[in-house]
Each structure stands twice: as structure tokens, then as C-alpha cells.
Amino acid sequence: MVQSRTHTCNQLRLSDVGEKVTITGWYDNMRKVSKNLGFLILRDFYGVTQVVIETEEMMAKLAGINNESTLSVTGVVRERSSKNAQIATGEIEVVPEDISVLGKCIYNELPFEVNRSKEADESVRLKYRYLDLRNPAVKEKIVLRCKIVAELRRRMTEHDFLEITTPILTCSSPEGARDYLVPSRNHPGKFYALPQAPQQFKQLLMTSGFDRYFQIAPCFRDEDARADRSPGEFYQLDMEMAFATQEDVFGVIEDVLPPVFAEYGKYKTASKAPFTRISYKDAMEKYGSDKPDLRIDLTLQDATECMADCGFGPFEGQNVQAIVVDNFTATRKVIDKICTDVEVVSGRKAYWFKLDEKGELSGGISKFLQDRKDRVVAALGLKNGDFVGLSAGKKGDALKTAGVLRRFLGDACEAHMKKECYEFCWIVDFPMYEIGEESGKLEFCHNPFSMPQGGMDALINKDPLEIYAYQYDLVCNGVELSSGAVRNHDPEIMVKAFEIVGLDEEAVKAKFPAMYNAFCYGAPPHAGIAPGVDRMVMLIAGEESIREIIPFPMNKTAQDVMMGAPSEVDDGQLGDVHIKIVLPDEKK
């Protein structure tokens, strides 16, 4: 029977000198001075402690023991002669009376040095994630995540929200991404789906008479990875409020989130209520994005008129957007890099010119503008020393490209980027409908369960493309944290809203039977939102990749290389759920 530890590897201090203790942890490293003198560093979850080996007998106990083995050390605490101010236990050391191996690492070579695991290739880190997580720098992000989630729970409870869990096995629902399907053993040919979000369940809770609901909800979507999106599964702070308006939701979020960001964040300043509110239309035309980074003070200008017929081919017959940056001193190399990065991200080229200190147009496309210099200077309000970044294309494309250019220019110009803070904003007044890029048909722009502004009257009497929804996005530092909406709780309005995109009442009943039927029994007006926990933690921690703040993330191709998922299953298992596999090659 192994004796329990008396202290962690971060607890012992000068006040413990002379005390007999037992500490346990991982064999971090050993600096061997001679055959009877060595300095062992023992590491556990909490920190490190130095153990001084002073006898050949004790040194022999460590012979053949590899790094990362787990040890129990019993000994006496004494004051260090050479103190280390870099660690909490740097004033003491433990002189061992006994060392025992609790768990032996059988490998002489590790896939990477634990304390430098972040320098290893990501695929290796993910395969040996249990070693990667031993690195204090990696572990602390997961600890931070735990603290943030606990604080979110506490604050939501203080606002009288009840934490209620919703089903994981449910039915397939059109949420905008591919479902993960689960075949049913007892119902041949039928499938469950893992929920893309608890959308319908939380609305049904409102119709059930629960006033305020939340959960840290797991969501599952079969979609590709991005730096700010993990494939497969993610978590969100899901909430819904009965008898509530958009303003009620805003009030809760504006009270709950900023203190969490300010307390735990890399930056210690966060927006205070009320957050800036920007219509979707204004966001696109002013910032070129529906998730603008408000730390950047640069804005877009429509330069189509002053650039018309200038002789520069890419501008002919196109919408042209401009971003003016005063006193921009970047080198030509930096400017070219910005233009290259814009093209990589947006798929479209960026252009530029300057009004130099002498008041002359120079660089970039300036030669096409010489005969209209005064017109361009007046239209864009230029001053000597100004840099002008440009994009061109159909208006939507030009705006989006300019939005990407704005971001890169902000990153390159400290005078226009208030970096060390969290700037929240609400994007509101989203279009209810849009023409689908692939289908060419009228589609819902965002959540089909959103209440149209103007209700039934708008659906009957307005052009669908002119109808706005009570739909809103929460954005922080250019990252979309969440979409939310005032829900469509009226079955007649719901049927009419779906009718406009070609789904009749019978189709609505078939696709959303529980929602439709529940609303027919008197549903309260309700609204909600679901900020992404993973994205929030990523922002708070100041990480560029979302995988750094997830304990066991998948790789970019939705594979768990540590567990070997997805994996093959045997024919017996397939038979149980009435499935036969037809591989792509077999379909030909």
C-alpha cells in the first residue's frame, strides 16, 4: 500500500523545514553531479520540487528509471543553500529517505520533451496528447477553461437561469451543417442524429413553462476545421428566456461576459454595457465584415465614382472600395505582403497608392490616377502622407475583400489598432431571406426560427429580400462568438415564413412536429443566444488555434489520432444496426 502524499510539489516552504514529508509526481529531470550527488526535479499537477540525492544507495534506486516515470519520495525538508526565485518551492529541497516507483515509463526516448511540447509537430502532440497535457504551459489553458466555465455557470445562476441538460440522441434537423447520424438497432433503417445545437429543445422548454434556461451544451456538426472552429464537436453557453425581447438577452450577456473576460483574459479591459450595436448593412458597408474588429479604427469608403474610367482594367465596371490610412510608413515589402495575404484569405486582389509628403500620387496604381488627382484627393479626403488600400469587384465581393484588407492594415499599423482590450459589439437587423449562392433560390439567411420584424404583415406585404429578422450576432475582436434571435413562436407566422422558401404547412409539420404542435398550445414570446465556449476561451487565453484550449481535440481532418477515431467496426456490429458499407470505389 503506497502512502498518500502529505504535500503537493508546489506547497513546501521555509516554514516546513525539518518536517518529514511525502511528495509524489513525475520524474521531470535529473542533474547528476557525481555517483552520489544529483538533483532530481519532481513535477506534479501543481508545480515542482527539488529532491537532493546525496548517497550512492539513493542514486542506485533511480538507476534505469526513465523520465516521466511516477515516483513517491519520502524525506525531510531543508533550506536550499542556492535558492531559485523562479519557482514557488525555490527556497527548500527534500532530502529523501525512500524513493519508490509508482508507474514506470518504459521508453528511453519520448516523442518530445514534455516542457517543450508546443514546439513539436501538431500531429505528434495530438497523438500523444496525454504527454502534451503534462506540459504546464499546455495544462494551464485547460485549467483556465475550467475556471471560465465555472464562472459562467455561477453568473448565469445568479441571473435565475436553471441549468437543464437536453438530449444528445435526437432527430435530424436542418441547422445549416451536416448531421452526425447514429443508426438505430431497434428501428431498422432509421437514424438518430447528434444535435447541432439544442435549438428546438430549449424552445420547447420555454413552451413548457420554464422561464430561464441555460447549459454548457455539447454540439455536433460534421464540418471542416478552422483556426477558430473545431471539427466534430464544440460547446456553447446555450441560453433561452421566456417572455423576453432582444433587449433582455442583450442585458444578460452584457452583464455576464465582460467581467469574465476582464478577470481571466490576456487583456484586462473589456467593453462595458451597452455594447456598440451595428446593423448588418452598416457593418458590411463600413467595415466590410459582419464580424468587425472594433479595435481597428479604419473604415471603408466607396471610391467607385472617383475611380470610374481611370483606365485600370480591374476597376472597369466594378464597385471600388477604399481604406485610407494616415501616416502609414510601411515599406514596400510590408505592403506587398499585406496584398498577398489579402488575396490568400479573400481570393481577390488588393491594390494601393499613396499621396506622398509632397502631395504627389505615387506607388501601386498611381499612374492610372494622375489625370484625376484632385478629384481622388477630394473624394477620399486625402492628406499628404496618406496610404490608400483598394478592392474591386461586385459590390459584395469588393466589400468583403476590403474587410480583409482593413484587418491586415490594422494589424500593421499600431496607431489604428487598440490591441490590448476586448471590444464587443452586436450585429443586428440581419436579412430574413437571401438568394442562395449555390441554389440561386430564396433561402433563409440565418436561423429559420427567427421572428421577422413586422411579423405576419411583413411576410405578406414586403419583398422577402427587404424583410429583416430579430436576429443578432455577438462579436468580440473580430470573432463571431454567437448568433441569437427572438424566436418565431406563432405557428401561423412560422408556416408563412417557411412558405416563402417553398415549404408548405404539411412540410413544416413533418420537419418540426414537436415545435409546431407545442406552439399550437400557447407559446410565450422567447429569445436566446449561445456564445461559443471554445471561442471565448481561445480569445481570453490569447491563443490563435482553438485546439490549444480543448483537452482532447481532433485534427484538421476530424480525426482523433490518439484514440484512432474514426475507426472501422466489424461486420457483427454493422449487422446489429442494419448497416452495409458501400465504399466510394464500389459505387462506380
Automatic annotation (TrEMBL):
<dbReference type="InterPro" id="IPR006195">
    <property type="entry name" value="aa-tRNA-synth_II"/>
</dbReference>
<keyword id="KW-0648">Protein biosynthesis</keyword>
<dbReference type="GO" id="GO:0016740">
    <property type="term" value="F:transferase activity"/>
</dbReference>
<dbReference type="InterPro" id="IPR002312">
    <property type="entry name" value="Asp/Asn-tRNA-synth_IIb"/>
</dbReference>
<dbReference type="GO" id="GO:0006422">
    <property type="term" value="P:aspartyl-tRNA aminoacylation"/>
</dbReference>
<feature type="binding site">
    <location>
        <position position="480"/>
    </location>
    <ligand>
        <name>ATP</name>
    </ligand>
</feature>
<dbReference type="InterPro" id="IPR004524">
    <property type="entry name" value="Asp-tRNA-ligase_1"/>
</dbReference>
<dbReference type="InterPro" id="IPR004115">
    <property type="entry name" value="GAD-like_sf"/>
</dbReference>
<feature type="binding site">
    <location>
        <position position="175"/>
    </location>
    <ligand>
        <name>L-aspartate</name>
    </ligand>
</feature>
<dbReference type="GO" id="GO:0005524">
    <property type="term" value="F:ATP binding"/>
</dbReference>
<dbReference type="GO" id="GO:0004815">
    <property type="term" value="F:aspartate-tRNA ligase activity"/>
</dbReference>
<dbReference type="InterPro" id="IPR047089">
    <property type="entry name" value="Asp-tRNA-ligase_1_N"/>
</dbReference>
<dbReference type="InterPro" id="IPR004364">
    <property type="entry name" value="Aa-tRNA-synt_II"/>
</dbReference>
<feature type="binding site">
    <location>
        <position position="487"/>
    </location>
    <ligand>
        <name>L-aspartate</name>
    </ligand>
</feature>
<dbReference type="Pfam" id="PF01336">
    <property type="entry name" value="tRNA_anti-codon"/>
</dbReference>
<keyword id="KW-0963">Cytoplasm</keyword>
<feature type="domain" description="Aminoacyl-transfer RNA synthetases class-II family profile">
    <location>
        <begin position="147"/>
        <end position="551"/>
    </location>
</feature>
<feature type="region of interest" description="Aspartate">
    <location>
        <begin position="199"/>
        <end position="202"/>
    </location>
</feature>
<protein>
    <recommendedName>
        <fullName>Aspartate--tRNA ligase</fullName>
        <ecNumber>6.1.1.12</ecNumber>
    </recommendedName>
</protein>
<comment type="similarity">
    <text>Belongs to the class-II aminoacyl-tRNA synthetase family. Type 1 subfamily.</text>
</comment>
<dbReference type="InterPro" id="IPR012340">
    <property type="entry name" value="NA-bd_OB-fold"/>
</dbReference>
<dbReference type="GO" id="GO:0140096">
    <property type="term" value="F:catalytic activity, acting on a protein"/>
</dbReference>
<dbReference type="InterPro" id="IPR029351">
    <property type="entry name" value="GAD_dom"/>
</dbReference>
<feature type="binding site">
    <location>
        <begin position="532"/>
        <end position="535"/>
    </location>
    <ligand>
        <name>ATP</name>
    </ligand>
</feature>
<dbReference type="InterPro" id="IPR047090">
    <property type="entry name" value="AspRS_core"/>
</dbReference>
<feature type="binding site">
    <location>
        <position position="221"/>
    </location>
    <ligand>
        <name>L-aspartate</name>
    </ligand>
</feature>
<dbReference type="InterPro" id="IPR045864">
    <property type="entry name" value="aa-tRNA-synth_II/BPL/LPL"/>
</dbReference>
<dbReference type="Pfam" id="PF02938">
    <property type="entry name" value="GAD"/>
</dbReference>
<comment type="function">
    <text>Catalyzes the attachment of L-aspartate to tRNA(Asp) in a two-step reaction: L-aspartate is first activated by ATP to form Asp-AMP and then transferred to the acceptor end of tRNA(Asp).</text>
</comment>
<comment type="subunit">
    <text>Homodimer.</text>
</comment>
<keyword id="KW-0067">ATP-binding</keyword>
<feature type="binding site">
    <location>
        <begin position="221"/>
        <end position="223"/>
    </location>
    <ligand>
        <name>ATP</name>
    </ligand>
</feature>
<feature type="binding site">
    <location>
        <position position="446"/>
    </location>
    <ligand>
        <name>L-aspartate</name>
    </ligand>
</feature>
<dbReference type="GO" id="GO:0005737">
    <property type="term" value="C:cytoplasm"/>
</dbReference>
<dbReference type="Pfam" id="PF00152">
    <property type="entry name" value="tRNA-synt_2"/>
</dbReference>
<dbReference type="GO" id="GO:0003676">
    <property type="term" value="F:nucleic acid binding"/>
</dbReference>
<keyword id="KW-0030">Aminoacyl-tRNA synthetase</keyword>
<dbReference type="InterPro" id="IPR004365">
    <property type="entry name" value="NA-bd_OB_tRNA"/>
</dbReference>
<keyword id="KW-0436">Ligase</keyword>
<keyword id="KW-0547">Nucleotide-binding</keyword>
